[in-house]
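Issue: copy button drops trailing tokens. Both records pasted manually instead:
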Amino acid sequence: MKHLALIMDGNRRWARANKLSALMGHDNGANTLKDIARAVAEQGIPFLSVFAFSTENWRRSPEEVSGLLQLMRKFLMSETQSLVDENIRLVIIGDRTAFDKGFLELFETCEAASAHCTGLVLTVAINYGGQQDILQAISEAQKQFPGEEISSDMIKSCLMTSHLPPVDLLIRTGGEKRVSNFLLWDLSYAELYFSDKFWPDFSSEDLNQAVADFQHRTRRFGGDVASASEQS
């Protein structure tokens, strides 16, 4: 497996079940991300992409949105050095126009600090939507390749995920069974795995179970039998 994607769902429901605030759920979810990223790196999977904040999440209450943004800021400021120490490269994708100058500088600083790392590539999607990414990529491809027939390779080169290979496995926690506008282009032939556990309760053992399930699947990529090179 080259590329694992995660939709980290269930933070708020975990908080309600434990009689805690929604922000406490998100805070515990951030701690889970640290543990899972480390476990993914230990498994030798080179790419991990996670959905931290979607374009639709702005519809939540102002209090929750503000708290989520503060948690993101806290995570980036406190954990970037740990990522560097573990040779993990951080890449942030999404529409940055909604963020203030301080946030934009933080994004750039964190990415630059880990740019030399050669281990796991951790891509964090913040204010990201898969449909929006495809639309902007098509528009950009038309600008970059005027007069040419636009190919899938051209579009991929203009996506925010241009640095990523196709997703092999998508894991979604929290019991929901949908992809929620995440990495739509790169999920084309991904295997899907749904866990009933809320994200803060998802452990490295649960990750191992998902990866083991993936390894027992036969991927055909639209054909009869997948070639050895296609079996990640």
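Record 2 (pasted manually too):
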Amino acid sequence: MSASTVDPADPVFRLHVGGKLAVASTVPLTSREDLSLAYTPGVARVCEAIAADPALVDDYTWVSHTVAVVTDGSAVLGLGNIGPRAALPVMEGKAVLFKQFAGVDAVPICLDTQDTDAIVTAVKMLAPSFGGINLEDISAPRCFEIERRLDEELSIPVFHDDQHGTAIVVLAALRNAATLLHRKLGDLRVTVSGAGAAGVAVTRMLIAGGVNPEQMVVCDSRGIIGRHRADLTETKAYLAETTNTGGREGDITEALRGADVLVGVSGGEIPEQAVAAMAPGGIVFALANPTPEVHPEVAARHVAVVATGRSDYPNQINNVLAFPGVFRGALDARATRITDGMKVAAADAIAAVVAESLTADAIVPSPLDLRVAPAVAEAVAEAARRDGVTRA
């Protein structure tokens, strides 16, 4: 969009004038004494204490409640590679959600590089100022290596929300959908359409949550992933070794034949006849946004439960159900990393919020449900302590 197409009267643009964030002081500055305590000379005593015992940074700075939201602007929403400046409004929005739902302060960091080594170096250099790193809108497959390296080299939680936030909410939704339909996760035949960041994370998360990998099939743009394929990246090779143990081949239509569950995270179009070939009483999560892989009204003709990534249909699979509480819990527990156990605990907590009132149109809480983040935070903190990844 060029500057000439910006409409100052558009409420979207009016809301964004001046950005969506500001810095506010948490201490008074109304007297000379206030100034001497908050800044020089008083602040020097705190600096010396932290220099002697670096762990005190959690108690005497904002580190215990602040994360960096880091992007390179390479995979922003459905907009693609729009660069760091154009990505900033999204990162500001993410920071607002952190604050609104979990009381976590978040700082947008938009890096002017898409080089993996440079991103890792930059984040490591910034890390002392934060209690956690939320990686955002970084394209696959670079996002896998960036997260892995940062997770290995930093002693604070690193979480790529496009992968794990989506995966956590999908597991929560599938758990409740299965309960509603009197099914067990381990019995479900699951097809995942999409083998990018979200697809890989969803597959891993569903397996961690109880789905039988032998009952799973993952598809990319070339069809079913399996050992028969010679064109696989390292990540897809993992999928080939872990799923599709029956050696199925073909396209998404073949992958859905007899399936109980479709999780769409591809952005591609899935024909109605493919959905119609699913097993009776099926489940469709068509999560591409704004255009789902299969229109929810079309999917509803053939399956029992439908979810999307959109806010104008029931059952919105929205990452805001996960990431605020995940970081709140990790920060509260002073976790050094985010484990699979913490992610599963987050999914279970999200599912439990609406477990007593399940309907086909309400298998997950509303993104605005203020019960979610505290429940997730408590579960994640407990799991961090159980998994032995806390400094406290």
